[in-house]
Amino acid sequence: MIVSDRVVCSADLVLAVEDGYVFRHDDVWALAERIGMLVRDSGRGREFGRRSREIISQRSIERMADGIVRAFTRVVGDGGRIRKE
To answer: In DSSP terms, which residues pair with 22 in a beta bridge?
Structure first.
């Protein structure tokens, strides 16, 4: 997977060189280089695809919602008051 840094969820979609590449949105040469890397090494592209499917299979709406609730609870606490850490 090759994703621009302007894609809002690029950090969630691509784990640095584990399942793809993120390139700077205004750097055409970086994009061309990433495409060339995948063309020259088709095994890497297949591995990125395999790893992406593995990562995505571990995600769900329920897990994302639980993460949001945990984050808010850490900041606000159970009583609704903002905690100072």
So the answer is: 3
Q: Which of 5, 20, 10 is nearest to 54 (CA)?
A: 20
C-alpha span between 44 and 7 (Å, rounded): 22
Question: What per-residue confidence (pLDDT) applies to 51?
Answer: 87
Domain locations in the chain? 2-59
In the chain, DSSP finds a helix count (H) and a strand count (E) of 4, 2
pLDDT of 79 above 80: no
The CA-based angle 74-79-80, given to 5 degrees, is 70
Looking at residues 14-21, what average pLDDT do you find?
Answer: 75
